[in-house]
Amino acid sequence: MKPKWISLLAILSLWSCSNDSSEAYVDPYANVKATFGNSIDLDNLANYANQTIPTYITKDNGMANPITDKGATLGRVLFYDKNLSSNNTVSCATCHQQANAFSDTNVASIGVNGTTGRHAMRLINARFANENKFFWDERAATLEIQTTQPIRNHNEMGYSGANGDEDFSNLITKLSGIGYYKELFKFVYGTEEITENKIQLALAQFVRSIQSFDSKYDVGRAQVANDGQPFPNFTNQENQGKQLFQAPPQFDATGSRTGGGLGCAGCHAAPEFDIAPNSGNNGIIGVLNGTGIDVTNTRAPSLRDLVKTNGTLNGPMMHTGVFTDLQTVIGHYGNITIAPGNANALDPKLRPGGNGQKLNLTAQEVNAVMAFLKTLSGTNVYVDPKWSNPFSN
């Protein structure tokens, strides 16, 4: 018979082997690390939730879905992932490029089955928009609802459930089979289950995190009590442009300007420079595809980062991309023609006394307003890695 101490050693040996942590450990984020390398560190997340916001910025349309570092990190992956399109060739970032203030230099962006119906809107400071609705025609009541509509669009990302497309449930199945999504959804929500609502929440958090408050305007605004005061860091021309932008015009009975400013702030008030809620259309009623008119476009992005600091446009302007320089935009507002079929939908501020406004602009005024608009551009939004493509780092 073997001594009892030999049996005891055998038991201890088995216990030691069964508790070998090096063999039992499985990295719960192995797929995230393998896919994204150093661009995403789940132990040291980028700061999305607690970015510095100037005290003079008071609007926030994201209170029902507060930004978290976890949620925005997942949103960043979803935003750049071409797996969200039916043929794996298009992502949200295809149409909304960081290098162009999250817009596109193409008039119409290229999707999986054609092109977009309108120009891709810039996404700068979407969180601080005065208008809570999204899309040019405001058909989405919230940013959350907006985020998955391009995915559900036949032309754009192809999960429409019509015209031979798979529906959104097929996308859910597709993403559920990807290792890094199993890990990220569990990391954010505590479970691997993927739903459209979870995708919407994460994408909206990421988009709302994209902010730009390092412009020449912001430097000046921090030094004064209100926007009506001259900014000490502005040139005389820039301060003149600011005054013209803010002051309302005075019109005669024919709609011709007799004095005052240009009234731009009536629709794009400082300091957010977003579109005023309940605005009408601005007189641009063309369509990109087909014929006829479209008077439903009443939304606009913030005027911040219309251009880069070197003056280069971040893509063409308006929903049709019809304008390619600031001078032409200002000229459009300088002489509004009320087109047939647009007499009621045109914003009332652009038709004083029922007539299309005529601002009678001088070259000096045009140049001053352009100079002011260029002060609204920052630099960080174009280069900050937390808003960059995690798949390419």
UniProtKB/TrEMBL annotation:
GO cellular component: a single term = cell envelope
Location relative to the cell: Cell envelope
What Gene3D superfamilies does the entry give? Cytochrome c-like domain
User: Which positions fall inside the Cytochrome c domain?
Assistant: 70-179, 236-377
Kindly report the protein's main subcellular placement as a broad class.
other
Q: Name one GO molecular function term.
A: heme binding
Keyword annotations: Heme, Iron, Metal-binding, Oxidoreductase, Peroxidase, Signal
Q: Give yes or no: UniProt keyword Signal.
A: yes
Pfam families given in the database record: CCP_MauG
Asked if the Swiss-Prot or TrEMBL record annotates the protein with the keyword Heme, the reply is yes
Do you know which PANTHER family this protein is assigned to?
A: BLL6722 PROTEIN (PTHR30600:SF10), CYTOCHROME C PEROXIDASE-RELATED (PTHR30600)
Name of protein: Cytochrome-c peroxidase
Provide the species name: Flavobacterium silvisoli
Q: What is the lineage of its organism?
A: Bacteria, Pseudomonadati, Bacteroidota, Flavobacteriia, Flavobacteriales
